[in-house]
Structure formats: structure tokens, C-alpha cells
Design a protein that fits this description.
single chain; 7 helices; 0% strand
């Protein structure tokens, strides 16, 4: 059925609006949360593409370590990579380097690729938070939890850079989700 606002009278318009509202009932906050996250993502990707190099000494060190990981893998395979991961930078867990490794081997190492992988993990974190809160408080509660996390600057800023934080966010959110599954 083709609806145009010119061909509908007032009661038909009301009926159409009620039908649309009924179809979206309970999903408003989820749609709103996804819209906000998409807007934040557009801004973050513009920032990432506008700053192709490491923006501080901490990030520069992590980028250099990832370059070394790629070189070690190309030089000696998995054994050499494991040796480098175990012997160098012992105070930090290597998850942030391991999660980005497939992308660097496929696309080449660059700070932009590292940051985009970190930002993609922000979306995975939001998904796990939504699913965990949905189990506890329903769809609206899950959307609010994801919205709160999506708007939290202390989560946004490290996720836009290649820091050690992004795998931790995913791990904690996944742990909460799997804690509340059945």
C-alpha cells in the first residue's frame, strides 16, 4: 500500500501514526542509543583519520611495539612472536597487541589501523553491555546501559587511541554478559 500524506485524511493519518508507533514500541531507546553511538563514531573516525600518527608518548610506544610484533612474526613465525610477547614489555598484558596483529599482518601496521581496531572494540563493548543489561532489566534497561557507556568520556577517549584499555573493556563487558546468561 502506498501512503502519501496528501492522499490520507486525518483519521487515516492518525491510524498510520499509531501503527508506526506500535511497531516501534519499546525500541525507541535502542534506536536512540544506536543513533548516538553512530554520531560519536562519525566524530571519532574523523578524528582518527585526521591524526594518523601517535598523539602522545604512551601511544607511540604501543605503536612501536606492534611494529616489532609484525617484524618478529615475519622474521620467525609464531615462535618468534611468542618470544617477543613474553620477553618484551612484561608489565603490560599483550592482549592489545594480539588483537590488532591479524589486521596489521593483513593491512600493514599503521596507527590508523590500530585505532580503528580499538574503536571497533568500543562497539563490541557496547554490544556486550547492552546484552548483559537486557538480561537483567529488559530492552530499555540495556539501551540505557549502553547509552550511558557510549556517552562516557573516560571510555570514548582511550577507545579512540591505541592504548591497553580496549581489550579490558571488551573483557569486562563480555564477562558481565556471560555471567548473566542463563
Amino acid at each position: 500500500m502506498n501512503y502519501t500524506t496528501d492522499s490520507l485524511n486525518q483519521p487515516e493519518r492518525r491510524s498510520l501514526l499509531q501503527h508506526i508507533l506500535k511497531a516501534c514500541e519499546g525500541k525507541f531507546w535502542l534506536i536512540f542509543t544506536c543513533s548516538v553511538a553512530c554520531i560519536i563514531t562519525v566524530a571519532a573516525v574523523f578524528w582518527i583519520l585526521d591524526h594518523p600518527y601517535a598523539s602522545n608518548w604512551d601511544e607511540a610506544r604501543y605503536v612501536n611495539q606492534s611494529y616489532q610484533d609484525v617484524a618478529a612474526f615475519r622474521r620467525g613465525g609464531l615462535g618468534e612472536l611468542l618470544r617477543v610477547l613474553v620477553q618484551e614489555d612484561r608489565p603490560r598484558p599483550p592482549a592489545f597487541r594480539l588483537l590488532v596483529l591479524p589486521f596489521t599482518l593483513l593491512l600493514g601496521p599503521s596507527a590508523t589501523i590500530f585505532r580503528l581496531v580499538s574503536w571497533a572494540s568500543w562497539w563490541v563493548t557496547l554490544g556486550f553491555v547492552y546484552l548483559a543489561a537486557k538480561r537483567i532489566a529488559g530492552m530499555t534497561g540495556g539501551a540505557f546501559a549502553a547509552l550511558f557507556l557510549a556517552l562516557c568520556p573516560i571510555i570514548i577517549q582511550p577507545s579512540m587511541r591505541f592504548y591497553v584499555d580496549y581489550p579490558l573493556y571488551v573483557a569486562v563487558a563480555a564477562m558481565l554478559y556471560f555471567l548473566f546468561v542463563n
